[in-house]
Every structure is written in C-alpha cells, then in structure tokens.
Amino acid sequence: MYLHIGGDVVVDTKSIVAVIDVSSPYQSDVNREFIQVAEIEGLLKPVALGYKTKSCVITSDKVFLSSISSATLRKRVMERILE
C-alpha cells in the first residue's frame, strides 16, 4: 500500500519507520537534531515547498518533511487498512 505524503510524493507504507509531528512549538531537541543530521547526510527531502512543515516521515532510506499533519497521515493509513 502506498501513502501520499504531499506534493507529488507517495511512499510505500512498508518502508515507513516513523511519522513525527514537528509542528509543535515544544518539539524535542532530539527531533531537531535528527532532522539536522539527515540534512547533512543528504537524506532529507522536503515534500511541499512553500508550505509549513507539519510532519516528518522517516522511511528506511529517506527522511521527508511533509506539510500534511501526522494525524492526517495516520488517518489515511488506517482508512486503507480498513478497506
């Protein structure tokens, strides 16, 4: 099953490791550091340029910054599972 995470990007749900909410002003320092390291290592892929980043989708080989909230992404996955 595939999940649309914004822009023209879809990812295979089997490759998703985690989805992290990054829109909160209380985002942890660990999450910020993880995103910085992913950017330095060339693994970070912004999905919807020009929009506020709301979630970070971590896959087995890339880290995507998405403008779709983590709650909406979860809902999309759950809807597909229940079909």
Outline the structure in words.
By secondary structure, this protein is of the alpha+beta class. The strands form 2 sheets. A 4-stranded mixed β-sheet has the order 3-5-6-4, sandwiched between helices. It has a two-stranded antiparallel ribbon with strand order 1-2. The chain starts with a strand and ends with a helix. Helix content is 30%, strand content 33%. The model has no long low-confidence stretch (mean pLDDT 91). It has one domain (2-82).
Provide the number of structural domains. Answer: 1
Category from helices, strands and their pairing: alpha+beta
Physical arrangement of strands within the biggest beta sheet: 3-5-6-4
Helix proportion range: 25-40%
- Supply the number of helical segments: 2
User: pLDDT average, as an integer?
Assistant: 91
Radius of gyration: 12 Å
Distance between the terminal alpha carbons, to the nearest Å? 11 Å
Secondary-structure element pattern, one letter each: EEEHEEEH
Low-confidence stretches: none
* Biggest sheet features: 4 strands, mixed
Outline: globular
Number of strands: 6
Beta-strand content estimate: 25-35%
